[in-house]
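INFO batch 0412 | record 1 of 1 | parsing
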Amino acid sequence: MKNIIVSPSLLSADFTKIQEELELVENAGAEWLHFDVMDGHFVPNISFGVPVLKSIAHKHHMLNDVHIMISDPLFYAPKFIEAGADLLTFHFEAVKRKNVETVIDMIKSKSCKVGISIKPKTDVKKIYPYLDKLDVVLIMSVEPGFGGQAFMESALDKISKLRKTIDRRHLSTLIEVDGGINDVTGRKCIEAGADILVAGSYIFGQKDLDKRIKELKRL
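INFO prediction complete | emitting tokens
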């Protein structure tokens, strides 16, 4: 059976009891912890930044999965890596095409895993030239910037095409999906070829949080 990684999104956590929230998801079997970083410029919202990551990064044993939805990843990436990011995923749309590899190489030079994320309207084929350098491709199944949106079915075709390309090229790149994930949409993503599910409101704040994480891992 394929090992499905669940990465709970802190965007939906209760920060008044953050240590308890971290322990709940980790004890339930979550292997990664997802940080949605928004700058109010690349996306129309502001979430949290380097200080929050730094304060949380070493208070658990999950992989710090940091997704930066910001306009200048080349400048900010080192700061997030220094703060504790284990995987840093930047947006393809935030970087000029000629600078994509520069950002990838810079992140890798800091001994950090690297990922690229694409918005729903971006053709997945645009990132194929970089697959051999990437640890993760993050497919957005909602428009980035806000939590609680409905899953966009168009993501499934991207996942499927990407899975076939990765397998055909014998790469180890993982496919992550973020946006509107629950037991139903999560299953569809896994069937299409995803490896990692990011879920926020489906997990945090739920009385059966433990059950929900375990079910996602078994999809």
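INFO post-check: Strands lie at 5-8, 32-38, 63-69, 87-91, 113-118, 136-140, 174-178, 196-199.
INFO record closed
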